Sequence to fold (173 residues):
Amino acid sequence: MITISTEYCNPISQDSYENLINSLQFHQLTCTCGHSACLTIHGYYDRNIKLKDHSVLLHICRVKCNHCNTTHALLPSFIVPYSQISLPDQVDIISCHENSGNYSDVMERTPSIDENCIHSIVRRYIHHWLQRILSFKLFVSTSHTFIQICFLHYGRQFMQVKKTPNILFLTPT
Fold:
């Protein structure tokens, strides 16, 4: 998996995702095996992301390493791997959990996120991330710095639970 550092795109759409992918220089991407300039487009798969009152279907690009034959999904940094809820929404839920425990604002703002989703996110946060965040005295956010720290120390996106190898690609300026 390769996570591309990018600004949150509101609203998330297939067009904004395609613009991100089309702006990439594939020869700059690095595989988890350590080789670069070896990735080619291999295919696409569909992924639902829950938004305010509906879900959006994204066709996620997969690339294949010509060296090790591993395939990787290309995900923008505002998408949490293996989750239908965006990183900003998950951060909002965690902030509510830490501050008041009242999730009514989140559910009113994003009706597609119900109590079951919220409880699942809070449970994953407590089980997989809380101690990691506390050990580095971090504040949960969607900032590039916070995301970079999660990749540096844990090799995955914040709130990514599965330990699938994931690399953060910082887009050149």
About this structure: The helical segments are 14-23, 87-99, 104-109, 115-135, 144-154. The first helix runs from residue 14 to 23. The first strand starts at residue 2 and ends at 5.
